[in-house]
Amino acid sequence: ILGKTGSGKSTLAQLLLRMYDPQQGAIFIGSTPIKQLSLKTLRDAISYTPQEGLLFSDTIENNIKFGNEKATAAQVQEVARLADLEHEIEKFPQAYETLIGERGVLLSGGQKQRLVLARALLKNSPILLLDECLSAVDNRTEKTIFKNLETYLKHKTLLIISHRIVKEWHFDTIIYLVDGQIVEQGSHDELMKLEGAYFKLYQYQTNQDLEEDGAIS
Fold first, then answer.
1. H or E element that contains 27
2. How many CB atoms lie within 10 A of CB 153?
3. Where does residue 6 fall: left (phi above 0), alpha (psi -120 to 50 degrees), or beta otherwise?
4. What is the pTM assigned to this prediction?
5. 25 Cβ contact partners less than 8 Å away, ≥ 6 residues apart
6. Residue 89 in 3-state DSSP?
7. Least confident of 40-44, 188-192, 210-214
8. DSSP assignment, residue 78?
9. Sorting pLDDT into bands at 50, 70 and 90, what band is 217?
10. C-alpha distances in angstroms, 27 versus 20, 37, 51, 155, 210?
11. What is the rounded CA–CA span in Å between residue 159 and residue 41?
């Protein structure tokens, strides 16, 4: 789900989670309207990473385990690895027992986002909903995370909300929003042939990525 800031991407996520309901129409998971599901059933089925996740003044491990309090230390470490955070956690003097302070003040923006992602992965729901969850990480870290998640996502439904195109994966459907309306919808190849909003974003991002890779090398 792509679109510029204010296009309605995060609103769509809130509707799916039933933070509020649409005034018209209905939202379905499969053939079931989500209004027919209890809030607990619906939200248990979705692992959600918001743009700014809530972090507690507690240890790194306990912040990750908020997604599944019964998880083992090995499971916590595995999701940290998937989120490309494990090696950074191990650099802290107390590793997973490190206290991160109020709202995760000890962590960088990218580390906060990856911790929240690890928490969502630990919840292990059938639907993974990522809302701009890697906006503060660099290009190479993002690619590493997407590579790590390939096996994890094999039997799950993934919804990514982003202002950038995720080139690492082949999506069944790409939706481009403008002012709350779907202006383009289809596969990557179909949208490239249209040479519309998606095509222009892809061309622009490709040029930006080449410039960034050149600067790094």
1. none
2. 13
3. left
4. 0.85
5. none
6. helix
7. 210-214
8. H
9. very low
10. 12, 11, 22, 22, 39
11. 18
